[in-house]
Design a protein that fits this description.
The protein is α+β, with helices and mostly antiparallel strands and about 625 residues long. About 40% of the residues lie in helices and about 15% in strands.
């Protein structure tokens, strides 16, 4: 929806600079307000992307008539209509039709308890002048970003790291965060960033900051905790499936609330297909965006066409491999927007899809992110499920599901040792990479990097992926790639009502007879073609990236690795070992392309941010 910025200190110039550098997040209006306090100023800035109530009366910062309350807010409150009625019953009068005013009045009326009522995504800064308190908060799953930095008695906060970098002191590289990325591909798994002293406001949390006191650090409280959800013992199968469908349908429906065009991403997989189906019942001539490839091995076009034909809509298709030689140029643009290294070419695919949505004036887009983590869609969950049955001595179930996994599910065909290596227990793990290109400054931090191959039960792993290892990285890049073109992404599968219900259900509703996402399949059986509902070969947004790194981009990669590398200048990696490692990669197909991709991603990130870094 927007971008927010804030600064607490004596300067009055920094807020406009921060707004300018994040203008892509909200080109419809850019404003700021400076509040004079006893010993410093509180500056609140906002870049608006108009979605609900397009009038200027909904511009921010929002300020109460008596000047006591001020707020900047980025996101969408999907249940704003219902909460507005609740507030009107308390004789609160509204001046706009915006969700922003509902958020504002909710915080005035209910304080931080309002966060428990919100169904949406947000990054919020709310100031109460009479109490001299500033509240910072993020939504339950961190769909909307909010970063902060405390230094030299100043507090900076922003929707994007680049705004903080532009107006604060030079930063050191956070080598532990960087090492996590190189060792196991982890991104956004902690509140730390790739820059020392710049942190994320935690998801599901808020902080009440007393501005009458010196700010040395910021402490956060949770308003929602997924670990507190009780187990359900559902016995009526049809009732459970119907209730799931009811919540899902509503999660899609309330995400269609908008005064601008709403479209969807369709990959051809089950998750995006169910969203597309539900949207098609509510929107005539639905805008559909899809990524395809000229190579059938990677393309989902066949399944995209099946779904689009079933809802009688022609999708707009973006070919991801028209010119792989453009990849490095695209990576530079994408990493600038992302503020940190990226996980894969999937980010570039989303960037190109968002570019297409911009060309076609589709301002709001629904996406299926979060479904795999919520419904056990990844094959690792089935392995955890089988091991859980064995551990609980349910031997018949163990044998049955093991056989289903091996011969019925199709999951075994998707298994890739080089991708699964980081998840395997130590006694099964194979050391594929022989050359370690990292310098000692990173290697010595290995013991502090949390291992991903810890054996846990399925529910624990799902929660870890929803809140730490998977969803935070996905929502990070989806937000940045959409905002690069002033678009808004909405995620129905992360509706907290849906998450609370599914996470609490017995595992048999998620995995059964060799099938993942069992309840989703059953809920839409008969509405979508069986070739989609009971499909076994999951792909998602794929690109021929392995092939590119071994063939199409070989010359470009070798040229890059022969240049003066900043990864070497900063004492992070050894250039000669990087070149040796790439040679090994070219002849050893057991090495995952991402090992090479991550090196390149870090190098490009350093080149973009070099002026902000101290050695």
């Amino acid at each position: 929806m927007c971008g927010i910025n804030g600064f607490i200190g004596k300067s009055v110039d920094k807020i406009e600079i921060m707004n300018n550098i994040t203008n892509h997040r909200g080109p419809d209006n850019s404003s700021f307000n400076i509040i004079e306090l006893a010993n410093f100023n509180l500056s609140l800035g906002h870049n608006r992307l108009s979605i609900i109530d397009l009038s200027i009366s909904a511009n921010q910062p929002f300020i109460s008539e008596d000047n006591r309350y001020s707020m900047v807010y980025n996101g969408e409150l999907y249940n704003y209509i219902e909460l507005k009625k609740e507030l009107e019953n308390q004789n609160i009068i509204f001046q706009t039709n915006s969700d922003t005013e509902v958020v504002f009045n909710s915080l005035i009326a209910w304080g931080v308890e309002a966060f428990k009522k919100f169904n949406g995504m947000w990054g919020i800064a709310f100031f109460d002048k009479s109490k001299n308190e500033l509240i910072l908060s993020r939504d339950r799953f961190g769909e909307k970003p909010l970063y902060y930095c405390v230094e030299d008695n100043n507090l900076y906060f922003s929707s994007e790291i680049k705004a903080i970098l532009e107006v604060s002191n030079k930063k050191k590289i956070n080598k532990l965060t960087l090492n996590r990325y190189l060792l196991n591909g982890s991104l956004d798994s902690t509140e730390e960033t790739f820059f020392e002293n710049i942190y994320k406001v935690p998801a599901s949390s808020y902080s009440i900051i007393n501005l009458s006191q010196k700010i040395n650090s910021i402490n956060f409280e949770k308003f929602w905790d997924i670990n507190d959800l009780p187990e359900k013992t559902e016995t009526n199968e049809r009732k459970t499936i119907n209730y799931f469908r009811e919540i899902f349908n509503d999660s899609v429906k309330i995400r269609l609330r908008s005064d601008v065009n709403v479209g969807t991403l369709l990959s051809g997989g089950l998750d995006s297909s169910t969203i597309t189906y539900e949207m098609s019942k509510n929107i005539n001539n639905l805008d559909i965006l899809s990524a395809v490839s000229s190579d059938e091995k990677y393309s989902e076009e066949k399944f995209i066409d099946i779904v689009s034909n079933s809802v009688k809509v022609n999708p707009r298709k973006v070919n991801l491999d028209d010119n792989p030689k453009q990849i490095f140029d695209l990576m530079e643009k994408v990493i600038w927007h992302n503020d940190e290294p990226i996980p894969s070419f999937s980010v570039i695919a989303h960037y190109l899809l968002m570019e297409e949505s911009h060309k076609n004036n589709i301002k709001v887009i629904l996406s299926g992110q979060g479904a795999d983590e919520l419904l056990g869609g990844y094959q690792k969950y089935y392995i955890y499920y089988i091991l859980e049955l064995l551990k609980s001595k349910k031997y018949f179930g163990f044998i049955k599901e093991l056989l289903n996994y091996l011969f019925n599910s199709g999951l075994i065909k998707q298994f890739s040792l080089k991708e699964a290596n980081r998840y395997l227990p130590s006694f099964l793990k194979k050391k594929i990479r022989k050359i370690d290109f990292r310098e000692e400054s990173l290697i010595k931090l290995d013991s502090k990097v949390e291992k991903l191959n810890k054996i846990v039960n399925v529910k624990e792993r799902q929660i870890m992926d929803l809140m730490k290892y998977s969803v935070p990285a996905l929502t990070h890049y989806e937000d940045r790639m959409s905002m690069a073109f002033s678009r808004e992404i909405r995620l129905p599968f992360l509706d907290y009502r849906l998450v609370e219900y599914i996470i609490s259900l017995p595992l048999s509703y998620k995995m059964r007879h060799g099938w993942t996402k069992w309840i989703l399949r059953k809920a839409f059986e008969g509405d979508l073609p069986d070739t989609i509902i009971w499909r076994k070969d999951k792909k998602g947004f794929t690109t021929p990236q392995e092939k590119w790194f071994r063939k199409d981009l070989k010359d470009e990669i070798e040229i890059l690795f022969n240049e003066d590398l900043l990864v070497e200048k900063f004492g992070l990696m050894n250039k000669s070992k990087i070149k040796q490692f790439y040679k090994e990669f070219l002849i050893n197909d057991k090495i995952w392309y991402k090992e090479v991709f991550n090196i390149i991603s870090v190098e490009i990130w350093l080149r973009i941010n070099n002026k902000y870094l101290s050695e």
